[in-house]
Design brief:
153 residues, OB fold (Dihydrolipoamide Acetyltransferase, E2P)
């Protein structure tokens, strides 16, 4: 019996990649400077209007590694993802990526878990896919973290 494959999106960050189920991705936008939020941490870049929603835009690299920079380039894009959970304020999150994401079918055998001492709570797992190091976000925790940082201050 063939191993089940799932369709995923592999999107480049400044350091590594983010791996998401294809169904979690709503849209890819060109980068535009978001409207700043008062009192938000530096990894919350602001928010932008999208399809009738105010969407918080984050730098995932900075969220998981405070030493990362928040530079954007002509290749920067915003990946709009659907959130999980019961948040009334955060239904979508925009993640700044560095280039175009790609669709990739993966199976459990194609992923090699990378052992790390301690993962941030917004990361479910760090994996290697082919030659790429990718982070699989813990979407429920990411939603709660973004909501608290962007709107509960």
């Amino acid at each position: 019996m063939a191993e089940k494959e799932i369709r995923t999106i592999v999107a480049p960050l400044q350091e590594g990649y983010i791996l998401l189920p294809n169904g979690a991705v709503a849209e890819l936008l060109g980068y535009a400077l978001p409207e700043p939020l008062k009192k938000a941490p530096t990894w919350v870049l602001g928010e932008t209007a999208w399809n009738g929603w105010q969407v918080p835009i984050i730098n995932y690299d900075q969220l998981i590694n405070e030493r990362s920079s928040s530079k954007t380039t002509s290749k920067s894009r915003i990946l709009i993802i659907k959130t999980l959970g019961e948040s009334t304020q955060v239904n979508y999150i925009g993640i700044v990526i560095q280039g175009l994401p790609r669709l990739k079918k993966i199976s459990a055998d194609s992923l090699q878990e990378i052992q790390m001492e301690e993962l941030p709570r917004t990361i479910f797992s760090a994996v290697r896919i082919d030659d790429l190091q990718a982070y699989i976000p813990e979407l429920g925790s990411l939603t709660r973290t973004v909501e608290q940082a962007a709107y509960d201050n």
